[in-house]
């Protein structure tokens, strides 16, 4: 498994989908009064939501590294193609890479994921603004506004998760 | 309200956490609105106002609580064992949810920091071709074919879309998409869940599958055919299906019992009539189809529907228009027809020409649902019995009682040819007859009378032993009273068809046994004949109660009993006392045999056929 895939798994599957998504889903139910869990709001504020700025950068870096780390050019770093002479590896690797970028859907995948990341970040910003996350009493602001912002952020995160899932799970040439 | 119980196999949410709680699981439950009843956490549960379900989480791996340095491995046998334990008896799993990707390997400092007890993963763990969830799915389907299993994963659906369908999963719940609503819908559509209103009692798999079929059928407006033996609760299931529809049971639900209607009134009942349509039609009448407009019409015992009415119903279904008898114009209706039968109605369409095949096709457009007989859901008998006993106690003001386990076991062993209706009736009788007891014991229960078919089979199989029913232990006076007081009026026409030969056969067999018993009481035992010497005349005197009875008359009576319509030849041939008595009578009365038959008014056509 490529390191890029491991990073994607940790960010998308492990964090975004297994940790952030349930906590946001539950938060909506807490806001609407369906769930009562003492201390949840504080845990949410201090952990899941507070992690976003850092994770956002990790996801952006992941996307930046995609073209480099998942390019078919990397096949020349492993047997059997690693046995080619350096000159061949250079020109053929570059050719394969360019062709992959032009003919595969990599650019479209990257554009979609970056757009989703941007939307999620905007939604987070709105949520922070509405919810006054800096205070421990952020749930005391107008519930309706908070709910709207939370729903928006959750949907944006879900869209981001779906976009990240679309990337290929192995190095391909097309 | 009893919540459906689901079993969730997931390495991440199912894992135990050595210190503190599995916070991710807690959040997942809060997201899906499910109560965690796994019981492996010390923290007080969160409060969910209106939970969708209860859930038991399972890691599917060992160790359940892993720490840094431990190696985590998938555990198929233990998972199957746990599923089996929760499937053996109620409350069973309504649904199993399976994760796809299970990470294995060592728990390192780095992986533990990311999420407690989670291993770093091995190459291939997240390869769709190696998903442990798929191996689990195939194993569960093999061991528990009735258990509905769905995939619950955040992995891309496309990776396993064909495999999970082929392996028998009911669907794929992608996490993060309106989760609680999707889960609620999945449970409703695929889960094995009892009738939450309590109208239909029971939790057996056979019943829950029928309820699930009804819920699924209820979501469309297509006609549905309900099948099942008499007394299994087809009308209740129709009402359940009605409630399961989009309208939640608020639209009309109109019932027509085809068995209770006279053929001449059927069309009028169904379609209505206009004034003057026939003699006695002194005013317009609205038919049941119109009453059921926008709702459901339940037609019970459709096998009894007259041919003319079938034609009219077929037209109404095809055109959506109801024309009353004697009317010229119709009215458009939107009616879903829920029909029921306990007959092999396809045979009727093919052999008798009694039921239109084209109508049958339209009556089951939305599917056929089979309700299991009570003997196939004996585990429901306790709950049913308790309900009926309480109902009877309330209705009659009798003392409240418990049910003796021995009595319950007996109830569960009986075949119940009349199904739930018969069980209810039997328990009502038991309560009424024993108003003041505090324990319903075996001796308070009369076993169900075998159906005529069963009775015939049993008689054919064993004529030399008495029938093992409570009737055999009842006094003769009680038996005679039951027979003479039997209320044929309450039976439907279908139940009366062709019963005379069976009743005659039962009568003839009873008299044969009576004679055998009387002959045995009069055996004279001597040293030379320790088995006893047969004395026919005293036995017939005993039977008739006559002060004076000639030997000739006694022999004639024996011959007459042997030749009653339906008299069981096996009983007469196999019982040595009866056989000897008959042979002796024939030897003495051969010249008079024809005269004897004439005196007994026997039908010569039936003679020799027994």
List the helices and strands and how they pair.
The complex is a heterodimer of chains A (174) and B (610).
Chain A: H1 3-31, E1 35-36, H2 40-48, H3 52-69, H4 86-103, H5 106-131, H6 143-165
Helix pairs in contact in A: 1-2, 1-3, 1-6, 3-5, 5-6
Chain B: E1 5-9, H1 23-32, E2 34-36, E3 47-48, E4 53-58, E5 61-62, E6 71-74, H2 76-85, E7 93-98, E8 105-106, H3 109-114, H4 132-143, E9 149-153, H5 161-166, E10 171-174, H6 179-190, H7 205-218, E11 224-227, H8 234-243, E12 253-257, H9 263-271, E13 272-273, E14 285-286, H10 288-291, E15 296-300, H11 307-319, E16 321-322, E17 331-332, E18 336-341, H12 345-352, H13 357-363, E19 368-370, H14 381-396, E20 402-403, H15 405-413, H16 419-433, E21 439-440, H17 452-461, H18 470-473, H19 476-484, H20 493-496, H21 500-521, H22 536-544, H23 551-562, H24 569-574, H25 576-589, H26 593-599
Helix pairs in contact in B: 2-4, 7-8, 9-11, 14-16, 21-22, 22-23, 23-25
Runs of chain B in which pLDDT lies below 50 for 5 or more consecutive residues are: 451-470, 602-610
Number of helices of chain A: 6
> Could you say which overall geometry of chain B the principal axes of the C-alpha atoms support?
globular
Q: Report strand % of chain A.
A: under 5%
Structural class label of chain A: mainly alpha
Shape of chain A: elongated
Walkthrough of the structure:
Chain A is mainly alpha-helical and 174 residues long. Chain A contains six helices and one strand, in the order H-E-H-H-H-H-H. The mean pLDDT of chain A is 86. With 610 residues, chain B is of the alpha/beta class. Helix content of chain B is 42%, strand content 12%. Chain B is built from 26 helices and 21 strands. Chain B has a six-stranded parallel β-sheet with strand order 2-4-1-7-9-10, sandwiched between helices. A five-stranded parallel β-sheet of chain B has the order 12-15-18-11-19. In chain B, strand 16 (321-322) and strand 17 (331-332) form a beta hairpin. In chain B, helix 14 packs across helix 16 and helix 23 (551-562) crosses helix 25 (576-589). The interface between A and B is medium-sized, with 28 and 33 residues.
């Amino acid at each position: 498994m490529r390191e890029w895939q491991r990073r994607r798994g940790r960010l998308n599957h492990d964090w975004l989908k297994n940790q952030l998504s349930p906590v946001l889903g539950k938060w909506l139910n807490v806001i609407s009064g369906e769930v009562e869990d003492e201390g949840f709001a504080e845990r949410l504020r201090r952990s899941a939501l507070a992690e976003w700025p850092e994770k956002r950068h990790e996801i952006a870096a992941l996307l930046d590294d995609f073209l480099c780390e998942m390019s078919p050019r990397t096949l020349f770093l492993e047997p059997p193609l690693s046995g080619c002479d350096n000159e061949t590896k250079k020109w053929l690797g570059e050719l394969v890479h360019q062709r992959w970028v032009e003919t595969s859907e990599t650019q479209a995948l990257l554009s979609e994921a970056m757009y989703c990341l941007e939307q999620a970040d905007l939604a987070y910003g709105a949520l922070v603004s509405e919810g006054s996350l800096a205070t421990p009493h952020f749930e005391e602001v107008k519930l309706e506004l908070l709910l709207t912002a939370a729903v928006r952020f959750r949907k944006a995160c879900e869209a981001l998760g779906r976009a990240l899932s679309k990337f290929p799970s192995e190095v391909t040439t097309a | 309200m009893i919540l459906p119980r689901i079993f969730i196999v997931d390495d991440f949410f199912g894992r135990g956490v050595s210190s503190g709680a599995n916070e991710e699981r807690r959040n997942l439950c809060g997201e899906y609105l499910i109560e965690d009843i796994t019981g492996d956490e010390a923290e007080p549960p969160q409060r969910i106002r209106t939970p969708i379900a209860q859930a038991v989480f399972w890691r599917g791996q060992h160790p359940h609580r892993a720490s840094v340095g431990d190696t985590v491995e998938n555990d198929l046998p233990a998972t199957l064992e746990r599923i089996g334990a929760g499937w053996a008896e109620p409350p069973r799993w309504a649904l199993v949810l399976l994760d796809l990707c299970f990470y294995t390997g060592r728990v390192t400092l780095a992986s533990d920091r990311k999420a407690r007890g989670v291993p770093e993963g091995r190459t291939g763990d997240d390869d769709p071709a190696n998903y442990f969830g798929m191996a689990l799915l195939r194993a569960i389907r093999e061991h528990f074919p009735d258990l509905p299993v769905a995939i619950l994963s955040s992995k891309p659906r496309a990776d396993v879309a064909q495999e999970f369908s082929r392996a028998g999963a009911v669907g794929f719940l992608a996490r993060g998409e309106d989760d609680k609503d999707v889960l609620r819908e999945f449970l409703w559509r695929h889960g094995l869940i009892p009738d939450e209103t309590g109208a239909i009692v029971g939790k057996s798999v056979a019943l829950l599958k029928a309820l699930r079929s009804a819920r699924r059928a209820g979501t469309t407006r297509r006609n549905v055919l309900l099948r099942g033996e008499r007394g299994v609760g087809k009308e209740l299931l129709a009402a359940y299906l009605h409630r399961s529809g989009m309208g939640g049971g608020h639209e009309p639900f109109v019932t027509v019992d085809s068995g209770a209607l006279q053929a001449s009134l059927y069309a009028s009942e169904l379609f209505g009539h206009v004034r003057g349509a026939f003699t006695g039609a002194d005013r317009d009448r609205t038919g049941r189809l119109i009453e059921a407009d926008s709702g459901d019409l339940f037609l019970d015992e459709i096998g009894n529907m007259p041919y003319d009415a079938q034609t009219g119903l077929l037209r109404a279904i095809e055109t959506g228009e109801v024309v009353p008898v004697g009317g010229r114009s119709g009215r458009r209706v939107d009616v879903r027809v829920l029909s029921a039968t306990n007959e092999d109605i396809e045979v009727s369409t093919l052999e008798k020409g009694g039921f239109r095949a084209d109508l049958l096709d339209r009556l089951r457009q939305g599917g056929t649902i089979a309700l299991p007989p009570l003997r196939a859901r004996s585990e429901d008998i306790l709950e049913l019995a308790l309900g009926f006993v309480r109902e009877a106690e309330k209705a009659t003001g009798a003392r409240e009682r418990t049910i003796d386990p021995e009595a319950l076991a007996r109830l569960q062993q009986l075949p119940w040819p009349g199904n739930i209706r018969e069980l209810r009736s039997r328990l009502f009788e038991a309560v009424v007859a024993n108003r003041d007891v505090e324990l319903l014991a075996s001796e308070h229960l009369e076993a169900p009378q075998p159906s005529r078919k069963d009775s015939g089979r049993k008689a054919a199989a064993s004529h030399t032993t008495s029938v093992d029913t409570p009737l055999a232990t009842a006094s003769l006076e009680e038996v005679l009273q039951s027979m003479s007081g039997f209320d044929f009026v309450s039976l439907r026409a279908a139940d009366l068809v062709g019963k005379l030969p069976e009743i005659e056969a039962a009568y003839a067999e009873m008299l044969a046994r009576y004679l055998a018993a009387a002959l045995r009481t009069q055996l004279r035992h001597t040293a030379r004949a320790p088995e006893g010497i047969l004395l026919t005349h005293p036995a017939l005197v005993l039977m008739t109660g006559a002060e004076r009875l000639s030997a000739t008359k006694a022999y004639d009576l024996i011959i007459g009993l042997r030749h009653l319509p339906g008299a069981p030849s096996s009983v007469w041939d196999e019982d040595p006392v009866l056989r000897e008595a008959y042979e002796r009578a024939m030897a003495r009365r051969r010249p008079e045999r024809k005269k004897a038959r004439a005196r007994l008014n026997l039908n010569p056509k039936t003679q020799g056929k027994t």
